[in-house]
Design a protein that fits this description.
Bound molecules: adenosine-5'-diphosphate
Number of strands: 12
Strand order of the largest sheet: 2-1-5-4-3
Shape: rod-shaped
Order of helices and strands: HHHEEHEEEHHHEHEEHEEHEE
Structural class: alpha+beta
Length: about 450
């Protein structure tokens, strides 16, 4: 911007001024030529020469016929003839000639002196032959004008520009410093706080300043929260798994040692305890593996259209044989759904085995299939201990057990319902539980038909 201003104002001012003046004189010439036969011609001449500070007159080839408000200095005969001769050859012609002009300078306090050749001035001489049909002979229009030398003006402009440039550069520098401070300060603050990422619970990033830094702060605050949650989960998982592994292993080694040292203890019951603990360990390891696959997003659904009612009947048949339970099946029709048969079987199996493990004295479990227009809902109802209201949301979290004190529950790894939740979420299914303490629980899930 500044450079353009310098070029235009200092470098090209003279040229622009000259061009404007030339255009102006050509315009005056055209107007006078147009009005040559008008009664107001004198008025036009006066007005145009005054407002544009040019001298103008109309002549035939021998004498001046009409002169404007500013009369022209005497033009010598030779120049007069020369201009007329030239005008006859072209519709109009313009001469631009540099010639010395006098300048009044002050010398001492009250003495003035005219100084010749002080500065050369440029004179524009415009001549036009006007041939109007209403006139019997051609007229000639002479316009003379001086282009005042602009070096003094350019000097002044240069000085003003210099001051403006310095002020503008200073302002730009100041603005630049201010802006860079405004932009870098929040980034520096965020950077300092980012070093504590994942180490502090209540880390809140403060990057106020501009929209992007505020958004970045919010994102990082969220990332910190996630990191802390993952860290806590990891610690919890290690605590839980090590506890869950140690207990059965202690039992197994304890019983094995006892059976080795005391031949009387070599009973089928003790062997069964060892086997139970082995099964428990297998289930725990399988659950952990399943869950880690599901959580890593490595699990893809193997979607098929299958008869879910038949699948559930088959699971119920197996369970019924193995357990002493009263199983009420309310499954009236076969329903086809689209889903991953293996994984949905696991969902149903986990819910059912929970019902068996937590069932009440009546040992009754009801499995219900409710078919609606576009959905099928499965309910597994037991009359056991039930779940406290405040625990209802938490049981779907990994490793959540309603007592949650790392004491090993008689059954389960505490991962079962978390696996159920992951699988049903993958199927975009609706699921949940209704429960009353000491009355029992009903777990359900719904699938699109
Ligand atoms: P677990 O392997 O310990 O059963 P789950 O994830 O399957 O773990 O269940 C989480 C917790 O939810 C259980 O520890 C238990 O407290 C509670 N729960 C699940 N199903 C039932 C039920 N049918 N009746 C009562 N409590 C239940």
């Amino acid at each position: 911007m500044l450079a353009t201003l310098w070029i235009l104002e200092v470098g090209m001012l003279d040229e622009i001024y000259k061009k404007t003046k030339l255009d102006n004189i050509s315009k005056i010439g055209t107007i006078i030529a147009r009005e040559i036969a008008s009664n107001d011609l004198q008025n036009y001449l006066d007005q145009l020469s005054q407002t544009n500070e040019v001298c103008a007159y109309i002549t035939d080839d021998s004498s001046i016929l009409m002169s404007g408000e500013i009369p022209c200095a005497d033009i010598g005969r030779q120049e007069f003839n020369y201009r007329i001769a030239n005008a006859q050859n072209a519709p109009f012609n313009v001469f631009i000639e540099e010639k010395p002009i006098n300048e009044i300078v002050m010398q001492g306090s009250n003495i003035w002196r005219a100084s010749w050749n002080a500065r050369p001035a440029t004179e524009i001489r415009y001549t036009q032959m006007i041939n109007d049909r209403q006139m019997d002979q051609p007229y000639y229009l002479f316009i003379n004008s001086t282009i005042t030398p602009l070096s003094a003006t350019v000097d002044t402009i240069q000085k003003i520009l210099m001051i403006v440039s310095i002020i503008m550069i200073l302002i730009a520098l100041l603005l630049g410093l201010l802006l860079s401070y405004k932009f870098t300060k929040p980034i520096m603050m965020i950077n300092a706080q980012a070093k504590l990422l994942g180490k502090k619970d209540d880390l809140v990033f403060d990057g106020h300043g501009y929209q992007e830094s505020v958004e970045l702060s919010e994102t990082l605050t969220m990332v910190n929260k996630e990191l802390r949650t993952v860290e806590k989960l990891r610690n919890e998982l290690i605590a839980n798994i090590s506890h869950d592994l140690r207990t059965p292993l202690t039992m197994i080694s304890g019983y094995a040692e006892m059976m080795r040292d005391l031949p009387d203890e070599n009973t089928p019951e003790n062997l069964q305890t060892i086997l139970d603990e082995c099964h428990y360990l297998t289930r725990l390891v399988n659950d952990v593996l399943d869950l880690s696959k599901l959580q890593a997003g490595a699990t893809t659904l193997n979607l098929t259209t299958f008869n879910i009612s038949a699948t559930i009947h088959a699971i119920l048949d197996r369970i019924e044989d193995m357990n002493e339970i009263i199983l009420i099946r309310e499954i009236d029709e076969d329903v086809m759904i689209n889903g991953d048969e293996m994984k949905l079987s696991q969902v149903f199996y986990n819910m059912l085995s929970n019902a068996i493990h937590y069932m009440g004295e009546d040992k009754t479990i009801t499995v219900r299939q409710i078919v609606s227009k576009d959905k099928v809902r499965f309910e597994i109802e037991d009359h056991g201990c039930g779940i406290k209201e405040e625990d209802l949301d938490k049981i779907w979290d990994s490793y959540y057990r309603t007592n949650n004190d790392h004491t090993r529950s008689i059954v389960g790894s505490g991962l079962g319902l978390h696996i159920v939740k992951q699988i049903l979420d993958l199927h975009h299914a609706n699921y949940g539980v209704t429960s009353k303490v000491n009355e029992g629980s009903t777990f359900y899930f719904e699938m699109q038909r």
